[in-house]
Amino acid sequence: MAVNTDAVGKQFPPVTYAVGREKVREFARAVGETEPLYLDVEAARAAGYRDVVAPPMFAVVYAMPALAPAMVDPEVGIDFSRLLHGGQEFVWRRLVVAGDEITTTAELVEVSERAGNGFYTFETRSVDQEGAEVCVGRWMNVVRAA
Amino acid sequence: MEIPMLKVTPDRYLTVRYAGASGDFNPIHIDEEFARSVGLPGRILHGLWMMAQCARAQTEAAGDPAALRRLDVTFRGMGVPEAELTVTSTVREERDGVATVDIVVEQNGRAIIRKAEAEVAVGGG
Fold first, then answer.
1. Which domain holds residue A102?
2. Is this prediction's ipTM beyond 0.90?
3. Looking at the whole model, is its pTM more than 0.90?
């Protein structure tokens, strides 16, 4: 399989995600969290947060609306029927709380080929409503050889 | 710093709840027939849900979600519902208030995440 590297460096339009209290709770429960900061507004406020705290892995939720269009972009050319999630990295700068508005920009940073498999790495950079960086993600996708 | 082993058994419908919570509705996670049609043993767990168990092991040990600074995971195997996962975390080094942790996730005697690394602030750092 010949991978197309023409789109490396392509940046995709920023998308803003409004973090909702019940979405944070739904996500926290789905990943088995019992930490009161994620579930209980009073506990979060007592600890100095404005509202419930999003678990760090909630980055998946606020970054995905910016990443999804990048992954289906015809110039990138990912074959979804052979797609696997190969790896994931997040670097967190600060916690996100319900009420934050997080804006994420996605970029295709690397495309390569090994043993017929295509490797597509995207980077997402998420900032809060004040423009402060909250999380950087690296999403490594593998398109298996045909 | 020691990080206790985390054990979790995803129930039969966990992947459906996580799909809704995360927005990842890839049918390989929620549709048994579809998963088999593309050569999988059946519905598989979301890799990012397994990664969230790695994150939870760190933040529960630290007692503070803000302590988790970085998590880097390579997905090598497939997890399935209705079997226990164990998340084993080993502190490799502690320097300048940050622990570097190696993490392995196993299920049915196989490592399904073999290469994962976290950076966790220790001692309120």
1. 11-19+54-143
2. yes
3. yes
